């Protein structure tokens, strides 16, 4: 199947699939020969930090000579980014070729009158076929949402379950309390695996510990307060933790925590027999790149892009701004989806700003209208103006900023790629 035809086929699935639960994807995978059963997984769940932790682990494992697979959600710049082998996106040709057996299986399911999978479930199944064909090991698999009922949780051959920072998000699907959300995410922990997490709020940590105890799974709780930091700057952080000394180049106050979780994951993998030398750890961490999280797009004026789309991530963004840009004049570009806790995000970040421009992607039905967002933001900061689209928002940001000021765009990962391209075109 041609790549574009394959994309259109998956997009059509919005009309017929999408019920919660794993029934549909299990039937699809059964028809495909259950390719996931021949793979070994590092399964990653959490509200924030999944991508960064996955990136650290991916770079280290590739340094150690492993042919990694990686399934990423959401993507920033390119649709094919979601399925990677050895750090390279799946090719258009391979994507089309993988879609042929998937489409044939889906047509069989239609004829049988069976419940049909969602686009995300189809992409997940396609990725398993691809990773098996490319002989990837291990596969770093990010949950789309939650854990217990996420499409990725059809797997049973988990080597390592990684639980990153857990906070309130997607409450309509995952539960109304932190404990309920943590229990959902802890659903990725499988018998016979190992598990790592960061220090969580007590309610969340208790659920993760209970899940590990119930399944007799060893758990490491990585505490970043035990790290010894030698250097901390916007371009470089060097620290020691757990016998490792590494340098990272991902900025942000939260990256120390993400890096420590990844180090704990490496230790757990070593215990299970994975061959990872300390030189692989050092090189992998130093080379890790991951965009959309406190990403510096340019200087003079500074332009920072951050995907913060929930209160926990907003708090981490606030901390990073204070760490690197104390005393600087701040211009915020804020756009968000309707279903997010945008008033709480605004309450955390809006008081910091000197000027705020609200923005939206008009073609995205999930986007909160810029005018509606501006009304919410004015509760905490009167210096608000609206923009017609992302390009207009970026233009206004640069008009408001002096050379030494800081522009920060945040609220969703969905527009990160567009913002990056727009900023790159500004002389």
Automatic annotation (TrEMBL):
EC assignment: 6.3.2.17
Domain Mur ligase C-terminal intervals: 292-412
Listed cofactors: Mg(2+)
Record field: catalytic activity: (6S)-5,6,7,8-tetrahydrofolyl-(gamma-L-Glu)(n) + L-glutamate + ATP = (6S)-5,6,7,8-tetrahydrofolyl-(gamma-L-Glu)(n+1) + ADP + phosphate + H(+)
Parts forming coiled coils: none
EC category: ligase
A GO molecular-function descriptor: tetrahydrofolylpolyglutamate synthase activity
Residue ranges annotated for the Mur ligase central domain, each copy included: 44-264
Example of a GO cellular component annotation carried by this entry: cytoplasm
InterPro entries noted in UniProt: Folylpolyglutamate_synth, Folylpolyglutamate_synth_CS, Mur-like_cat_sf, Mur_ligase_C, Mur_ligase_C_dom_sf, Mur_ligase_cen
Keyword field contains Ligase: yes
Pfam families per UniProt: Mur_ligase_C (PF02875), Mur_ligase_M (PF08245)
Alphabetized UniProt keyword annotations: ATP-binding, Ligase, Magnesium, Metal-binding, Nucleotide-binding
Family: Belongs to the folylpolyglutamate synthase family.
PANTHER family referenced in this protein's UniProt entry, alphabetically: DIHYDROFOLATE SYNTHETASE-RELATED, FOLYLPOLYGLUTAMATE SYNTHASE-RELATED
Protein name per UniProt: tetrahydrofolate synthase
Organism: Candidatus Pullilachnospira stercoravium
Highest classification ranks of the organism: Bacteria, Bacillati, Bacillota, Clostridia, Lachnospirales
């Amino acid at each position: 199947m041609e790549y574009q035809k394959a994309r259109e086929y998956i997009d059509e699935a919005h009309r017929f699939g999408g019920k919660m639960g794993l029934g549909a994807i299990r039937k699809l995978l059964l028809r495909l020969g259950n390719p996931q059963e021949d793979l070994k997984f590092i399964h990653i769940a959490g509200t924030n930090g999944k991508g960064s932790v996955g990136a650290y682990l991916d770079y280290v494992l590739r340094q150690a000579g492993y042919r990694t697979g990686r399934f990423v959600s959401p993507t920033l710049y390119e649709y094919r980014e979601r399925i990677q082998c050895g750090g390279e996106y799946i090719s258009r040709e391979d994507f089309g070729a993988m879609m042929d057996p998937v489409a044939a299986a889906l047509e069989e399911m239609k004829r049988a009158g069976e419940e049909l999978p969602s686009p995300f479930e189809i992409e997940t199944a396609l990725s398993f076929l691809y990773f098996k064909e490319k002989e990837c090991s291990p596969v770093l698999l990010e949950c789309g949402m939650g854990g217990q009922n996420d499409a990725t949780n059809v797997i049973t051959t988990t080597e390592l379950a990684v639980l990153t920072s857990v906070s309130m998000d997607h409450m309509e699907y995952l539960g109304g309390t932190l404990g309920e959300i943590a229990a959902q995410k802890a659903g990725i922990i499988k018998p016979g695996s190992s598990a790592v997490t960061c220090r969580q709020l007590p309610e969340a940590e208790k659920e993760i510990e209970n899940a590990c105890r119930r399944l007799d799974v060893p758990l490491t709780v990585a505490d970043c307060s035990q790290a010894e930091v030698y250097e901390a700057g916007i371009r470089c952080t060097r620290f020691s933790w757990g016998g490792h000394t590494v340098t990272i180049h991902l900025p942000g106050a939260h990256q120390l925590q993400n890096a420590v979780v990844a180090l704990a994951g490496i230790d757990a993998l070593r215990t299970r027999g994975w061959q990872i030398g300390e030189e692989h750890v050092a090189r992998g961490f130093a080379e890790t790149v991951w965009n959309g999280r406190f990403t510096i797009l340019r200087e003079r004026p500074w332009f920072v892009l951050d995907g913060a789309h929930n209160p926990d991530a907003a708090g981490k963004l606030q901390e990073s701004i204070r760490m690197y840009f104390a005393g600087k004049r701040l211009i915020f570009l804020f756009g968000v989806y309707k279903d997010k806790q945008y008033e709480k995000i605004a309450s955390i970040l809006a008081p910091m700003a000197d000027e705020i421009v609200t923005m939206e992607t008009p073609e995205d039905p999930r986007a909160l209208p810029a005018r509606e967002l501006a009304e919410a933001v004015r509760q905490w900061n009167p210096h608000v103006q609206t923009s017609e689209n992302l390009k207009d928002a970026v233009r206004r940001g640069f008009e408001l900023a002096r050379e030494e000021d800081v522009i920060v765009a945040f609220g969703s990962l969905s527009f990160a790629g567009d913002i990056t391209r727009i900023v790159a075109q500004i002389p």
